[in-house]
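seq/struct pair 1
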Amino acid sequence: MKEPGHDVEGSAARFSAYLDYYRSQIVDAVTSLPEGELRTTRLASGWTPIELLSHILHMEQRWFVWGFLGEEVEDPWGDWDVDEPWENDGGRWQVAEDVSLASLVERLEAVGERTRTVLASSALEALAPIGPRFSDDPPDLEWICLHVLQEYARHAGHLDIVVELAGAQKG
């Protein structure tokens, strides 16, 4: 997938297009790796490519579904090995051995579809509700988009390095 062009009209459509772009970049990079590299770390921090894929799908779901829509999400922090990762520097990403790459890609595609629906039907100025994710001072949808987009871009860069270190084709 090519980076979105300047012809995409409207801020929500641009956010949606860039989120689609980075989602596809990460999926392409992870799926370019041989099976043995998916659960192998090449970095001091210890994360693996399949863990990063799980993290981004949980992260996007936390912000758009649990946060902005205020819907209950089963195990919103399921990518972390601690109960409250934001309060514990010792936590790190995790993926159970029985979770497949294909299942994570499918789940990420479903989360992406939800995000596209949110962006097509909501004003960027709309505030997330007080609810399961936010107890006070919720962000607006535009802030959520910027936060999620920067997280995707940062992790896509991390993954580019890991793919290169693994000797695989860049995604």
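seq/struct pair 2
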Amino acid sequence: MRLMIVDDDKNVRQATQLVFEDTEYEVLPCANAEHARVAAQRKMFDIALVDLSLGEESGLDLIPELLEASPWMKIIVVTADGRIDTAVAAVRKGAREYLRKPLDAEDLRLSVDRMAEFRRLERRVEELETGTEGTSPESLFESRSATMQRAIDMASKVATSDAVVLITGESGTGKGVLARAIHQWSDRSDGPFGVVNCPALREELLSSELFGHVRGSFTGAVEDKVGKIAATDGGTLFLDEVGDIPVGIQPQVLRFLQDREYERVGDPAVRSADVRIVAATNHDLQQAVRDGSFRSDLFYRLNVIPIELPPLRERREDIPQLANLFLKFHAAKLGRKVADFTDAALRKLEQHDWPGNVRELQNSVARAVILAPTSRIGANVLLTGEAQSTLVPDAATPEELVTLEEMERRYIEHVLGRTDSIERAAEVLDIAPSTLWRRRRKYGI
């Protein structure tokens, strides 16, 4: 938690700092409004203690500027003015609490702690709303595979550091789940966890998503936006499918990795953020470097701690355990009284190659839980969900032979037309949303 103290009295600043010495708070004292403005532009703050009398300026005028820089900031007004109209004016400007001088250390500490708890709850809600909590049980990482166990052990060892982690592996192997686990295992677990899906946005919008923008900086920028880097200050940012970052903004990403500094689109002010980067890709980045589509210096900055996740076909010993985990999870989530698999069903699961890996297995089990007519899932129910049983409209007839790519294009259009979101369509197709975005771009859908 970052705490800003804005007071023109040096003794008050020092005394307030002492109250929060040896606590969880990173404290920055500011002697005047201008100092506070500059600090707020450079870094994100969670809480601010603002004196209303700041020399020739009023703390009331500073409040909206601080909130514009960090919309989530909790502002506590501190003043010797005890008039009710002053308190009301401060609240209308955006202050959350109002403390009178002289300050009692315990009251001050309780007020700041209360604001910190509000901020933690907001982060928790943000995670739940954006789905960053994930839906897979944590025991997904209990593996009998030596290869998988080595990857998990490596992730748990490096989680407590701030080193950049690059997770590689085929689509559906659990790269995003492992990235969230690294965050939860780290000292940043109380901080925010953000996700940027690199293939999903064109260059200009991806730059805005990462770094933020100011109003009017490009067509459609109707208001200022805080980017994911600023929003995850103090936490972890997951760059999903980092190999798809356009060449044009790779230097900006490299600069942030090197110096933790960046600029918003349309704003020359240099900002900084304390963000741990975890990236993932199913591309061969070294080949991309040779092809010229990925900068070599960015690759080396990302490839500090490489972790490769094996495909499910190379860890078949984990399939029964994973299937049962998914069964219990989805049965509870869907309210279905489905208890286990028949022996024939488990054999069928173990014999399948799972080109979509763990994600495909989870989706197949989820469909089977929905379709199972009894408390046991039989072999006849498995792998017969929507993605495999629905016929593609206008499919090729013997008289109209088309390529496999054309058939794929038609089926993707079919699924997109019958689902209400990209995420749902990707789930039906048993592919990652980032993969679906690439297919749409490839086929012009």
